[in-house]
Specification:
4 helices; about 130 residues; alpha+beta; 6-stranded antiparallel sheet
Length: about 130
């Protein structure tokens, strides 16, 4: 992977429902980075901002479409979907190498971290790769 391409996503602030280039939320960063770094086009997730609490259910419905395949071990290009105990999507990120994950949070912005640090954000987690 081209380090210059990867580094353009590091150090950006978090912003609600932002898709870059100056700021990202976790889904926006995952969608844009997957496309730029791996050529993976992820689906749009329709969001009604007036009904934000319903958005995790929309994301969960996307996971159930059959286009997402669960992986036992994340590989570069895999989308990491962290689910809470009720199966609601809590956070998304992108694997960019062995035990390396690109993600963003409101508190710290976008960065690359070990997988274990990202998994600690949610009590349950599952790894998915998008299959068109």
């Amino acid at each position: 992977m081209n380090a210059t391409l990867l580094n353009q996503f590091v150090g950006r602030p978090w912003a609600f429902w932002a898709f870059g280039p100056d700021a990202f939320d976790c889904w926006g960063l995952t969608v844009v980075a997957a496309r730029v770094l791996y050529g993976i086009v992820l689906p749009d997730i329709p969001v009604n901002l007036a009904r934000w609490p319903g958005t995790p259910a929309v994301a969960r419905a996307q996971l159930a479409t059959g286009h997402w395949q669960q992986l036992p071990v994340p590989q570069a290009g895999a989308v990491l979907a962290l689910l809470d105990m009720r199966g609601r999507v809590h956070h998304t990120s992108l694997c960019v190498g062995p035990d390396r994950v690109l993600h963003t949070t409101e508190a710290m912005g976008s960065r690359i971290e070990p997988l274990r640090n990202v998994v600690a954000l949610a009590p349950d987690w599952r790894v998915y790769a998008w299959q068109p």
